[in-house]
Amino acid sequence: MKTLIIAEAGVNHNGDLEIAKKLIKVAASAGADIVKFQTFKAAALVTKAAAMAPYQKINMKAIEGNDTQFEMLKKLELSYADHFELIKECQKQGIEFLSTAFDLESADFLNSIGMKIFKIPSGEITNFPLLKKIGSFNKRVIFSTGMAEIHEIEYCLNTLINNGSKRENITILQCTTEYPTPDVDINLLAMKTLRDQFQVNVGFSDHSIGITMPIAAVALGASVVEKHFTLDKEMEGPDHKASLAPLELLEMVKSIRRVELGLGTCEKTITSSEIKNKSLARKSVVAKTTIKNGEIFSEENLTVKRPSGGISPIFWEDLIGRCAKSSYVADDLLCSSELD
User: Fold this and answer.
1) Distances (CA, A) of 207 to 227, 229, 241, 294
2) β-pairing verdict for 170-175 and 201-206
3) Which DSSP symbol is given to 223?
4) Mean pLDDT of all residues belonging to the chain
5) Hey, what domains does the chain have and what are their CATH numbers?
6) Are 38 and 11 in contact (CB under 8 A)?
7) Residue 80 — pLDDT band, cuts 50, 70, 90?
8) Cis peptide before 214 (omega within 30 of 0)
9) Are 106 and 90 in contact (CB under 8 A)?
10) Helix, strand, coil percentages in the chain from 3-state DSSP, rounded to 5
11) How confident is the model at residue 44 (pLDDT cuts 50, 70, 90)?
12) pTM for the whole structure
């Protein structure tokens, strides 16, 4: 199964439409399936007094009087007109547009423009009005589970289903809400718990450094992988430091596609690429010494050597004690008629 790779541009455009378009080009060039942004109205998302998280303060180089989430998010809003420009750019670049809605108005807007998938971020999985709204769209839903207890995940899932979403259209992502996430807190194996308990597709939303964890997630069965990326990690903004650079994004996509090929199927069989090596690597029963017609085969006059093509060593015990039907010199492969 092909993994859906979401390149998370998020707010790494810094409120600049041209930077956002460049991010789309980077995501498309890297081979990602989807490029994702964030749609919100700062006034509907946070109170004017809500403080920034510590990592946001550091990455925004916050100064006195400019250290609230509201001030930060106001600078990072995209207008509705911007969205149409971004959709056109996605169509031009051959990549699917996606954006996360953080409020009811934004969700309605994204639905009105025909967005096929809705992504619910970790911070919104207890937001009943938003979950009810998105569930009513009856579209594919992906939601992250950072900071969540199992009962909260169940609440989100049930709320979506009770309001119109189909279970088979919901994917739950293991996620840890820390930027960057320490390796010890990633817990990729939680994907198995989520899959087994809720009977849904699962995936991984990653905030760790580098590309190792998303690749490992695919090997563990992630059907969706989401990863932040940026044009430059040194840009000012809340998420740049924990994002991939363009070349890292490219390498992640290439590595995931390689892992998908390597996973193969559950069937164990001889592959087409190894058939040519079988005759050289496998062995046959051969004469260890000169053996005369009628002589008894024994461990003293038989041995096993490459190549295959003669009698397989599987039949070793069937040969021992039989009378030779032909004569052999050392290294001769025994004839198959010896087993008749």
Assistant:
1) 7, 10, 10, 74
2) parallel
3) S
4) 95
5) 4-41+77-263 (3.20.20.70), 275-339 (3.90.1210.10)
6) yes
7) very high
8) no
9) no
10) 40, 20, 40
11) confident
12) 0.89
Token match 């956002």: residue? 20
The confidence band for 64, taking pLDDT boundaries of 50, 70 and 90, is: very low
pLDDT at 238 over 80: yes
Binning pLDDT at 50, 70 and 90, where does residue 120 land?
Answer: very high
Give the span between the Cα atoms of 106 and 83, in whole angstroms. Answer: 11
Distance CA 335, CA 311 (A): 7
Q: What is the mean pLDDT of residues 97-111?
A: 97
Nearest Cα residue to 3 out of 206, 265, 225: 225
| Torsions phi, psi for 196 (to 5 deg) | -70, -40
Tokens coding 309: 């093509």
C-alpha pair distances (Å), 284 with each of 143, 276, 297, 300: 57, 16, 15, 16
pLDDT at 52: 78
User: Under a CB-based contact definition with an 8 Å cutoff, are residues 1 and 223 in contact?
Assistant: yes
What are the angstrom distances between the C-alpha of 24 and each of 15, 111, 148?
14, 21, 30
Q: CA-CA distance, 278 to 310, in Å (whole number)? A: 13
- Has residue 50 got a pLDDT over 90? no
Residue tagged 């969706």 (tokens) = 224
Tens digit of each residue's pLDDT (9 = 90 or more) over 174-197: 999 999 999 999 999 999 999 999
What are the structure tokens assigned to 123, written together? 């911070």
**H runs (alpha helix) in 202-288:** 212-219, 246-263, 275-281
Query: Is residue 242 predicted with pLDDT exceeding 70?
Result: yes
Which amino acid, 224?
V
Contacts of 25 (CB under 8 A, 6+ apart): 89, 93
